[in-house]
Amino acid sequence: MSNTAHTFAEERRAAILGMLEHSASVQVAELARAFGVSAVTARADLDSLEAAGKLRRTHGGAVSLQKALTVSIQDKRINLNVAAKQAIAQAAIGLVEDGDSIIVDSGTTALEFVRALTTRRDITVITADVTIANYIDDSLPQTDVILLGGTLRKGHRYLYGPLALRALEVLHADKAFLCPTSFVPNRGLMTNFEQMAQIKSAFIEAASASIALIDATKADAGGLMLFAPLNKIDVIVMDHDPQGILAQEIAEYAERGEQAPRLLVAS
C-alpha cells in the first residue's frame, strides 16, 4: 500500500470510529456510499478496526464496543452465541421477500435478524422493541418501521399492555418473527413475563405466518409463561437442534394428524 493510500485508509477508519460515537452500529453498504469505496474496501476497514480492538464485526457491518446497543435485561447476551444468532438470522432472512410487512419480536436474535434486512427492499417492520426501531431508523433507510404504542417496561426497552394489543388488532403482517425465552417439551414456546406472553400471542394472530427463531441453548430450557404451542407456528429456525428435541416433538404432532411447523436448521 502506498503512503497516500495508507493515509486515506487511516482517515476512513478514524471517520468510521467517529460515526460509531453517534450511532451504535454501521453497515458496509452505508460506509461504501459515504466514502465512495467498494464494499470490499469497507469490509477491510472494519476487519482492521476489529483486529485493533476498536469495534465488533457483525454480518454486514459492525457495532461499537463503547456504545453498545441496549437490549432487554432478560437477554443481556449480545456478545454471546453470536455465530449461532447470525446463522439463524441468515436462514430466516430467506423467508422474507421484498415488499413484505413483518412483525419482529424483541431480543438479540431479533436484532441480528433485523441487521440482515439490508438484503431486502420495501420492507415494513412492526415491532414493540425500541432498540430495533432505533436501529432501523439509524441504519436501514430503505425499511419502514411501525413502533407499537404501550407501556415501556423499564430497563427492557419494549412496549406492552392494552395500547400495544389494540394496535395489533388493526394491523396485519405477512409474517411474524418470534423469539421465545425457551422451548419446553410437551408445552411449547415460553417467555417469563405475562404481558410479553400476551404480546407474542397477539403477534401470531396478527400475521399470516409465524416463524420462531430459537438458538440451541433455548431448547428444553426453563420458561414460565406459555405463549404458543408448536401447532401455532409455521416455521422454526434454529442453529442446530440438540438431541433432536424439536424434531421429535414435531414428529409427534404429525403422527397425531395435527398441524406441525417446518424445522429449518441453519447449520
Automatic annotation (TrEMBL):
Concerning InterPro entries, the annotation shows: Carb_Metab_HTH_regulators, DeoR-like_C, DeoR_HTH, NagB/RpiA_transferase-like, Tscrpt_reg_HTH_DeoR_CS, WH-like_DNA-bd_sf, WH_DNA-bd_sf
Name one molecular function that GO assigns to this entry: DNA binding
Domain HTH deoR-type intervals: 9-64
Keyword terms: DNA-binding, Transcription, Transcription regulation
> Which SUPFAM superfamilies does the record cross-reference, listed alphabetically?
NagB/RpiA/CoA transferase-like (SSF100950), Winged helix' DNA-binding domain (SSF46785)
In its UniProt entry, what is this protein called?
A: DeoR/GlpR transcriptional regulator
